[in-house]
From TrEMBL:
InterPro entries: F-box-like_dom_sf, F-box_dom, FBXO4. Residues 10-50 form the F-box domain. It comes from the Eukaryota. Pfam families: F-box-like. It comes from Dioscorea cayennensis subsp. rotundata. The gene is LOC120264876. This is Uncharacterized protein LOC120264876.
Length: 229
């Protein structure tokens, strides 16, 4: 007697736990392995888990309706929407960049747009952590991931390394109001900091990232970011 396929012996919850750890394109490939996997890879429970993994906030909103179904369609449609909105952010940054430099006001506006679209860490990796993207876009993705999404720095560093962009360099220039000294205001100060993306993701560089997050305020007249490599 022929042995049963091993996949039929797997409880659904274990099979889903395996499938949800895969990339979506691998899930689609897995569906062609057998009738068991084809049925499971089309199931709402798997696609809900994939949606919740990629967009926790959006999946939670949709889950408020217990009657909601069609998580595979939701994933596909939301992926397309995220891709379109990410393209708008990328176009905005490219249009505002002059001589490969970006003023901090435009930089923070791009991050606010990522917040408004509720982009997940996977979206950042797909659309911003690429070799084809500029170092400025890589930096925006890094900043958003750590300070807006709360992704642990070690996970961000791992993503930077896996996409081969960890050693890209940027230069942060800022201009501060001169201090008052015996009734006279000293000249405005110009400062500069050259740093790699992987260095910026470490705890040692939290002050630099925090300064970028504050932007131009009170004593800081202007902040400008320039990509070096």
């Amino acid at each position: 007697m022929a042995a049963k396929p091993c996949s039929n012996w797997l409880p659904d919850d274990i099979a889903i736990a395996i499938a949800v750890r895969l990339e979506v394109w691998d899930v689609c490939s897995l569906a062609s392995c057998s009738r068991f996997w084809r049925a499971l890879c089309a199931s709402d429970c798997l696609w809900f888990a994939l949606c919740r993994k990629r967009w926790p906030a959006l999946a939670s909103d949709e889950a408020s309706s217990s009657a909601f179904q069609g998580w595979r369609s939701f994933y596909i449609n939301n992926h397309i929407k995220m891709a379109n909105r990410a393209s708008s952010v990328i176009k905005f940054v490219e249009e505002c960049s002059q001589n490969e430099s970006l003023e901090v006001g435009y930089y923070l506006r791009a991050i606010r747009e990522l917040c408004s679209m509720e982009a997940g860490f996977k979206d950042v990796q797909l659309f911003l952590f690429t070799r084809q993207s500029s170092a400025l876009l890589n930096l925006i993705g890094l900043h958003y991931s750590i300070l807006s999404l709360g992704i642990p720095p070690n996970e961000v560093i791992e993503a930077l390394q896996s996409h081969h962009i960890a050693e890209r360099q940027i230069c942060v220039n800022w201009f501060k109001l001169g201090r008052w000294f015996y009734g006279f205001r000293l000249p405005d100060e110009s400062r500069s900091r050259k740093i790699t993306l992987v260095e910026l993701a470490t705890s040692k560089e939290e002050p630099t990232l925090a300064m970028l997050d504050r932007g131009a305020i009170h004593e800081v007249l202007r902040v400008q970011i320039t990509q070096l490599t």
